[in-house]
Amino acid sequence: MSGLKVYTGGCHCGLVRFECTTDLATVTACNCSICTKKGLHFTFLPPKSFQLRAGQESLKEYLFNQRAISHQLCGECGVEVFARGTKPDGSEVIALNVACIDGIDLATLKLTPVDGRSR
Questions:
Q1: Where is the CENP-V/GFA domain (predicted)?
Q2: For residue 61, what are the contacts with CB-CB under 8 A and spacing of at least 6?
Q3: N or C: where does the chain have the smaller number of CB atoms within 10 Å of the terminal CB?
């Protein structure tokens, strides 16, 4: 997929909803402990390209390891919709769980391997 497109999505139960603009040029297939166990595939967006449309009050935060990435999960169904963090250059970033995009078919996306296990 190429070219910027507006996507909507959310968690399993529907309490958390978002809208974002992205090209899905890079979707990760990370082998770190959390991505492996949860089956997460992220694309990274500047915060201005992501809007939480519903469910702020339902979000629960999960921090682990260096506690640098704020994983945001629906407190009702437990799905991780996105995470907030900072890039090495210090700029803020949203890591969107691509599986939460409405109607997405992960099999049609090119996944980029990331060796998170070695970091």
A1: 7-115
A2: 70, 71, 72, 73
A3: C
Q: What is the pTM of this model?
A: 0.91
Identify the domain containing residue 66 by its residue range: 5-113
What's the CA gap between 58 and 78, in Å, rounded?
10
Q: What is the CATH number of the domain that holds 42?
A: 2.170.150.70
Residue of 1, 3, 11 whose CA lies nearest to 102: 11
Count of structural domains, the chain: 1
**Assigned domain for 119 exists:** no
Q: Which of 76, 38, 70 is nearest to 54 (CA)?
A: 76
Beta-carbon count within 10 A of 68 CB: 9
| Residue 26 is assigned to a structural domain of this protein | yes
Q: What is the mean pLDDT of each run of 10 residues along the chain (119 residues)?
A: 87 98 95 91 97 97 85 97 93 97 96 89
